[in-house]
Fold each of these.
Amino acid sequence: MGHREDLLVGAVACLREKGYARTTARDVVAASGTNLGSIGYHYGSLEALLNAAVLAAIEEWGAQLTSVMLAGVDPAAPFPKRFEQYWAAVLATFGEYRQVWAASIDLFGVAGRVPEVQAAIAAGLQDGRMAWAQLLHGIDPEAEPAKAQAVGSLHQALLSGVLVQWVVDPDRAPSASDLAAALRIIAADMAPSMTRNEP
């Protein structure tokens, strides 16, 4: 690897250990085996490097989660069971990426002023929407794009919200079984109106 790649790997390691706000340029240099001048040369600033590192770490997390889900979610199980298996997989990976998710909250503020960051986050959200629709409901995004968008958006909103709870309020954040129980309560509340064909 060259210095650019070494810096990115080092910055991701620092994010996972120390978080966004506490990572310094010297931390990244020590973790990457490069030098301070390399940060400016390859990324322009420490902030730009850390932003790239957060995006890389989230992409890595998404790939790991998809792999865990494919192994841990039974496609033949009823949806409530698949839903709980999905959340068990999400939360099992969350501890390892906790600092990354905390850093991603900082990155949302950056997105408002850096179009490339906003575009990267938006692309990641859209990939997530399509993945959840396909993996959890078997919806083909190409055959039924509107359906995949609607269902995937709901799961993406839930994912974002639960992860924020785990970052900000971990003692009261829901477990996989809590979420599955809530889903059953909501489904029971909806059942009467569904039989009456109410909107």
Note: Residues 55-194 form a domain with the Tetracycline Repressor; domain 2 fold (CATH 1.10.357).
Amino acid sequence: MATLNINGQTMDIGEIDPSTPLLWVLRDELGLVGTKYGCGIAQCGACTVHLNGAPVRSCQIPVGNLTDQQITTIEGLAAADGTLTPVQEAWIEIDVPQCGYCQAGQIMSATALLRNNPNPSDADIDAAMSGNICRCATYTRIRQAIHNAAEKMNGTAFYDAARTGETA
């Protein structure tokens, strides 16, 4: 029986073929459907999750490679009491999504960016978010939401690594 550490919890994934992409285990086996299937070839960013704190495309990562790794999905960002992170709050305040399909991946990438660069320039944001495609083209609002989240953070740690077990 295989297990994965997801959102700070050890989860049993049963007898899964080790070559199965993480995306399908998250969605089909564990019911964590916030992570979306977009292109299936790691080009659109809809399936972005954090692996040991770094944004990765879950559609191309075999679960057999994830023993002893810390995985965080969009469901794992908010605190247990439902308190949103500054990134999630900014997304709502700026009204970023139109269709919303890409937003979980966008938020995961933005969260990783701000963890590593709490005061990014427009160029920093554009570079960090370049692997996340938004078919509704809300890129200006995405950039503004990231700047707003950075201001909210004001140099404080917004991501509770102890809750998820992630390392920066």
Note: The chain has two domains: 2-76, 86-158.
Amino acid sequence: MSSEPQRLIGDAATMGVALDEQQAARLLRLLDELAIWNRSYSLTAITAREAMISAHLLDSLAAQPDLCGQLIADVGTGAGFPGLPLAVLEPQRSFTLIDSVAKKIRFVTHAVRVLELSNVTALQVRVESLSPDTAFDTVIARAYATLPDLLHGVQGLCGPATRVVALKGRYPQDELAELPRGWRLAQARALHIPRLGAERHSLSFVQQPA
């Protein structure tokens, strides 16, 4: 095993996330594919390899403790983060990755095929237009919108027991003061991402009983 997979496994372990060698290899293959596609489609502004590992892979994996249930939706997934890394880590869960931008969902679909992920569905659609028959157990979003806009936008994906997880930078105190009626903050965690050099927080929301 080369030093890059070893380092990824070690960095994940410092966050309490257990990766095996095969998972680490698949995650790094994801970055290989992203770098190739990015030259033509500008999917991410982060292009340095070390920065991609921290900002895309480790930042995504840090959300593992916040997942609950079997059905996970990643809204505004972009090039597949955090959904694709979490799907590699959690093969027993089903992930639906949602974005309205065609080129991003084309890449996600390509990555799903290359990584042989049988637990991922990619949807090109505006999340506000979705109202599935079965509510998701967890809805997760990374840098998607303000908290009020996020909670309004994903309402159609949620049932009474759905947890909505927002991955943010600085602690969004102002946004928390404007939560839509019926939602409350259930948990907040400061995330420590190796070599990221930026504040990161995970905030989990649940609906209050009427």
Note: Residues 3-207 form a domain with the Rossmann fold fold (CATH 3.40.50.150).
